[in-house]
Amino acid sequence: MALLELDGLTKRYGGVTAVNDVTMRVEAGEVRAVIGPNGAGKTSLFHLITGVVTATSGDVRFDGRVLSGLSSYQRCQAGLSRTFQLTSLFPEMTARENCRVAAQARLPRRWQPWGGASVFGEASKRGDEALERLGLSAVAGRPAGLLSHGDQRLLEVAMALSQKPRVLLLDEPTQGLSVEETLTAVETLAGLFAGGGLTVLLVEHDMEVVFRLASKITVMHRGSVIADDVPSVVKDDAAVQAAYLGGYA
Ligand SMILES: Nc1ncnc2c1ncn2[C@@H]1O[C@H](COP(=O)(O)OP(=O)(O)O)[C@@H](O)[C@H]1O
Ligand SMILES: [Mg+2]
């Protein structure tokens, strides 16, 4: 049984089918990228998995359990952690505090006075570990709002990682970064994934980023999956090349 299974997942917005009958299996330990040109349905798929929007039809199963009807928060508790968006970062708080708060959100007994001190300690430890894995230890004490743009994007990943997710979900982690910042971020993520032990689902439109990071690639075009294979096979797929050229022309 795969850790994350999508079955016939479909999302319609009025006349637009953003996600069309997507079936997909993500095994534990995989770094799966979902790619496709703008408008392919990647973010919609991500929202369906994380519970931000409700599917028109189809199922998401996580560790054998159907997630329909569970809120984003409940899915996070179950072990699906998504990158926090820049807007959900507390800019005046340090990078370390942001990670600690993220970690705390997934720990049990966090609101009980007698659980407080130990939860705080455990959350701080998880946060610091995540910062270290993303190469952010040196800036851990700096307010998040004062970090470079590249470090802020990595901090978003660190916050999700602080929750010790069973599947780490990233939506375009290099979006908005300069070429140089993208290179740094991609190498940092490559190092993180190379350590093993993580299951990752990465949504990304940049082919270079995907080929550097992914162990398997699902290609979407106009809501549907048009290829699903290892990078070397996907790279030579004629339909994929056509979709990308068509998408950007
Ligand atoms: N909330 C929405 N309401 C109406 N249409 C939407 C909504 N979200 C996405 N879409 C449409 O669904 C399609 C897929 O969008 P999206 O998932 O954002 O693609 P991607 O992330 O691959 O660029 C697009 O045609 C987009 O306009
Ligand atoms: Mg998108």
Strand and helix layout:
Blueprint: E1 4-13, E2 16-26, E3 31-35, H1 42-50, E4 57-62, E5 65-66, H2 72-78, E6 80-82, H3 95-106, H4 113-133, H5 149-161, E7 167-171, H6 179-194, E8 200-203, H7 207-213, E9 216-221, E10 224-229, H8 231-235, H9 238-248
Parallel strand pairs: 3-8, 3-9, 6-7, 7-8
Antiparallel strand pairs: 1-2, 1-4, 4-5, 9-10
Helix pairs in contact: 3-4, 3-5, 4-5, 5-6
The protein binds adenosine-5'-diphosphate (ADP) and magnesium ion.
User: Strands of the biggest beta sheet: in what spatial order?
Assistant: 6-7-8-3-9-10
Look at the structure and name the CATH superfamily of the largest domain.
P-loop containing nucleotide triphosphate hydrolases
Number of DSSP strand runs: 10
What summary fits the major beta sheet? 6 strands, mixed
Structural key phrases:
249 residues, alpha/beta, Rossmann fold, 2 domains, six-stranded mixed sheet, four-stranded antiparallel sheet, 9 helices, binds adenosine-5'-diphosphate, binds magnesium ion
Task: Characterise the protein shown here.
- The protein is globular.
- A 6-stranded mixed sheet has the order 6-7-8-3-9-10, sandwiched between helices. A 4-stranded antiparallel sheet has the order 2-1-4-5, covered by helices on one side.
- The mean pLDDT is 91.
- Helices cover 41% and strands 23% of the residues.
- It has 249 residues and is of the alpha/beta class.
- β7 (167-171), α6 (179-194) and β8 (200-203) form a beta-alpha-beta unit.
- It has helices spanning 42-50, 72-78, 95-106, 113-133, 149-161, 179-194, 207-213, 231-235, 238-248, and strands at 4-13, 16-26, 31-35, 57-62, 65-66, 80-82, 167-171, 200-203, 216-221, 224-229.
- It has 2 domains: 1-79 and 166-249, P-loop containing nucleotide triphosphate hydrolases (Rossmann fold); 88-164, no CATH class.
- Bound molecules: adenosine-5'-diphosphate and magnesium ion (MG).
- The site of magnesium ion (MG) has 2 residues, from α1.
